[in-house]
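ugh finaly. both done.
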Amino acid sequence: MLQRGDTIGLVTLGSPILNQTTINIGIQTLRNLGFHVVLGRHVFSYDGIVAAPADQRAADLMDMFTNPSINMILATRGGTGIQSIFPYLDFGVISRNPKIISGYSDMTVLLNIIYQFSNLLTFHSLMVGDFRPNTPAYNFDQFFEATSTITSPRIIENPPNIALRSLVPGNVTGPIIGGNLTSLVNTLGTPYEIDTRGKILVIEETDAPSNTIYRYLLQLLMSGKFDDCLGIVIGQCTNCLVSYGTTFDDLINALLVPLGKPMIANLATGHGYYKTTIPIGATVRLNATEPSLTVLEATVQLENPNV
């Protein structure tokens, strides 16, 4: 359980940092909140498309997991290349050294893989750049409720001005997984393919035209990922462009609604201004009739400060 005075380790696992000022503001905000901050060796490294070679970025992450003084691992950003560190990770060591870990965007793949391979809950939530003075209070409230309390059951609520929408009524209960659509599709056909069997699947996207989203949804459909899941939660498509007069919502209605899976839409998650916190791997109840999304278990533990 994350508390004031705990130590947060920062890692850059994908693309390099292009704006150090944003990261420095995040570091100072974390310190102002009462946390200590430790930087991975390659937080500010630059190696073309990625921050550093894959083995070095992986070593940074493993160092954070094995360092007993680190309570939470926080991504500086997502970006290209996070999957390249997977062959260098020791999921057994990660399982034996549980830590809170948070991020979104391309961090989606790591969050889900740690859950699949190490059986640890992870958090589709804030990154370092989201810790700034003008961050909406909603984002912080969601984050700290999930990482700093043992409250359960707990309803994942949207901001008051953003209503959840029911697309297909029904009620299902199971572990929640998913995140960024592009990142999920990139796991297909690899040893780290997303496992949706018996899960509630969340998808969100950013800066993608509808024709690209169409391709990605078809790929998940044809690979059986929507057949395998129990229910579907549609997040926001932030800054997504309309192609051929077809919107993101049009695609969801045409491709996913006919599946008949319990489904809600418009969850404030991922790349939008408002960011809820989704505990990847936690058991949740999806009520797609009312609609609501309820976490049924504590997502951190009181007795172990490293969880």
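ok and the 2nd:
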Amino acid sequence: MRKTGLAAAGLVLVMGLAACGTREAGTPVAATDANNSSNDGGAGGNGTLKVFGNALDLAGAVKNNNKATSAKMTMEMGAGAESMKANGAFKMGGADGTAMQMTMDMPQIGSMEMRVVSKVLYMKLPSSLAGQAGMPADKPWVKISADGTDPLSKTLGPLVSSLDQNFDISKQMEQVKAAGTIDKTAKETLDGEQVTHYWLTIDLQKAVQNLPDPEMRKLAEQGAAASSTKTIKEEMWVNADNLPVKVVAGTPAIAGQPAGTVTVRYTDWGKPVDVEAPSPDQISELPH
């Protein structure tokens, strides 16, 4: 079970890093607008392409967008010899909070699926890990909740409540005003769409101090203390609807682990997303 728990914990933290691509950046200071920084750019999406000269304006434009409640996403993460690819979708709001589904391909351990429904995390473990945990082949899912008493819930339960913050763009953009600076901007074309490209420098200490969730802040403080890196670089591409379509974020070297990069792409902002919990007869009860 130790190996299973560690792998699962790492994956949840990776999900946090992916969403943090827009989270840990920006103080409201003037930026160096390197290329065509006026607001008279061409159209992309349904609006007029804008270039924001400071993080305060950028954050406000993104977080106040009524389409910023659901999207599809793909993710690639690499650090040293380790790598992972993922794809999925999420939606925010409603009585049940965040709903999310994600399938991850990890060469080191196999494929894993995650779903978040009604503040409960469900994980479909790779067959190799499921076998080590003694799970029946017809019950490939495990349930992780904040108040669970099983080993995985004890390890990951405190992080489940913070998943809303990891996928809520409006909450992420609140962090844009607190932890870094926009270094430069440029108008570009990405996948046939006109976008504004932002380069940012992130102050890790300020980012950690501004995390609203106590558990995430505690983990981040431990990581920051173990890292010699004080700032990291980040890039964000924002379309004419003032929504991010691509984020590339650095991850700092911590405790002997190499620095890495997380790349997230977003599509279909504002379109319906349907996520259902696995059938109860497919969920295994792990030993306590």
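summary for the 2nd one i guess: Residues 1-45 have pLDDT under 50 and may be disordered.
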